Amino acid sequence: MLAACLSHVAALAYATAAVHCFTKGQGIAPSPWYVQVLLIPGWCLLFLGLSRSGVVGRITGIAIVWLWAYVIVCTYFVKLIPFYAGYAEGRIRIGPLVRWYGGFAGGPGEILNSTSLAPAALLAPLGACVAGCAVVLAAKSCSQRLKWKEKECRL
Questions:
Q1: Over 90: is that where the pLDDT of 67 sits?
Q2: Does residue 149 surpass a pLDDT of 60?
Q3: Nearest-CA neighbor of 66 among 148, 153, 141?
Q4: How confident is the model at residue 155 (pLDDT cuts 50, 70, 90)?
Q5: Looking at the domain assignment, is residue 47 inside a domain?
Q6: Alpha helix locations (H) across the chain?
Q7: pLDDT tens for residues 71-127?
Q8: Which domain covers residue 18, as residue numbers?
């Protein structure tokens, strides 16, 4: 993992230098999507530190895991599917969204059939699988974190 991270940092430095040269000094920052790969070692370090900080670290780690499970579920069902199916309101409110999903088979489903690679009828079960996996992984991860003892967290 260290070699992969170091090679990515080298590529990041190269891309930043290329942008700087191409823009004649106007662009000095890397593009935001380059930083995504560096999140993996960052999260590893974060959770390693949390695992070594006792009860507060365990509670914080559990809260982070459940927060991101919530984010992935909401991303699919509250933002992505409605966005690609032509949800008309800019701001998402739960009442109108539930009514919108109630009439999904009509207009929104047809729009989604043309904007997605998979048929609209397949996206709900696939989204449910993603949501289910997120919840199961969060529950499994949190149950393991609760079983950790302080002595197991030390190297």
A1: yes
A2: no
A3: 141
A4: very low
A5: no
A6: 2-22, 39-51, 54-74, 81-84, 94-102, 107-115, 120-147
A7: 999 988 888 888 888 887 778 888 888 888 887 666 777 888 888 888 888 888 888
A8: 1-40
C-alpha span between 43 and 98 (Å, rounded)? 34
Question: For residue 28, is pLDDT > 90?
Answer: no
Q: What percent of the chain has pLDDT over 90?
A: 15
Q: What is the per-residue DSSP string for 98-115?
A: HHHHHTTTTHHHHHHHHH
Residues 27 and 69 grouped into a single domain = no
Report the chain's mean pLDDT, rounded to a whole number.
81
Nearest to 59 by CA among 152, 45, 154, 67: 67
Which of 38, 118, 135 shows the shortest CA–CA distance to 80? 118
Number of domains observed in the structure of the chain = 2
Q: Are 54 and 150 in contact (CB under 8 A)?
A: yes
What's the CA gap between 39 and 113, in Å, rounded?
34
Tokens of 22: 């191409």
Produce one character per residue of 45-82: b if its CB has 16 or more CB atoms within 10 Å, e if not.
eebeebbeeeeebbeebbebbbeebeebbeebbeeebb
Structure tokens that stand for 130 in this block: 């993603």
